[in-house]
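Teaching assistant's notes for section 4

Start the section by putting this record on the projector. Ask students to predict, before seeing the second block, whether NADP-dependent oxidoreductase domain-containing protein will look compact or extended. Collect guesses on the board.
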Amino acid sequence: MSLPLNDGHNIPTIAFGTGSKWKWHDVTTYVQLALESGFSHLDTAAFYETEPFVGRAIKESGLARKDLFLTTKCGLMIPLRKSLKDSLEKLGVEYVDLFLIHNHFFVPDIKEAWKEMEKLKEEGLARSIGVSNYEVKHLKQMMRVAKVKPAVNQISLNPYNYAEMKPIIDYCQENGIVVEAYSSLAPITTYPGGPVDIPITAAALRLGITPTQVIFLWVRAKGAVIVTTTSSKERMKEYLAVNDLPPTSLTHEEIAAIDHAGANGPPPGPGPSSQPESTSFLSSSSFHLSPLSRILSSLSSRPSPSPSKDVGVDVYVDVEKSPLVTLTTPTPCHPSPHPPTKLTLVGVINILLVSITFILGIVLVLMGLLC
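Reveal the predicted structure now:
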């Protein structure tokens, strides 16, 4: 199943992501599992340091390039042309299907960056171009100079942040920009027992499907492409089975009930750590610091990957595959039976850098408070 993009290309409606816990880890085995399970859309990024492993998995799969849809994102403050060419080399391909600016602060100038993106598309290095984590103000700034509209805006989207994200979704739909959604499983993986559990579970019981599939149907109802991940082949099949469900499986009343339940945000609790990919990061207190402080803050806010647990995008717990949960029982989590992924040298270096930048970030924040 795919959706048409505004440039004439099509995008598969569900992608296997190599971010979240996979950052800086060897993901070859899990990308291979995803391809074997039926995923054709792979999502990666220079910042994740997973591109070489994605490339290896593609090569070993024997699949034809035309049968795959590859998305990658630019590196932090790396010239876009260099970033894309480095990504192509690591992936072992001549072009990507979709190249995204990972975040507005990943480039020094939004307008000039988009002009360069248009050149990369014209040269055929990226068939489609887009952005990630852009708010309406960033999209409007870019659109003032755009000769080619962005095909995609990838954002965090789940029932608990839908009200916050709705202006972005509305703007994208008005301008023919497809929304991609990551972190959609937060109600199950990060906030179990929250208010959206009741309408989600009720819909799951009516349809005879899992709560995870209900959430993915909800994402589809918002017109968005799903970006998710797992290390379990069984769950990969569960995710892909959503393609076999009618797009109108959820009633208008069920969708409205989920929207209403999530409107006041998630239940109290620690929740997920801030992620620089997350649009909510842009409205956090750290966003109002200097550019250097923002970068340090974004790096220091990344949690160390937990190799012992299997996850959905941007969360660090696993959803147990069970028939159906009751209205009063949150979906349980359990440690993954899979062996931990191998931590690469680059990963070790990045973890050390995160520790250093965390300390520097605290110092900068304290200096700012004192001043």
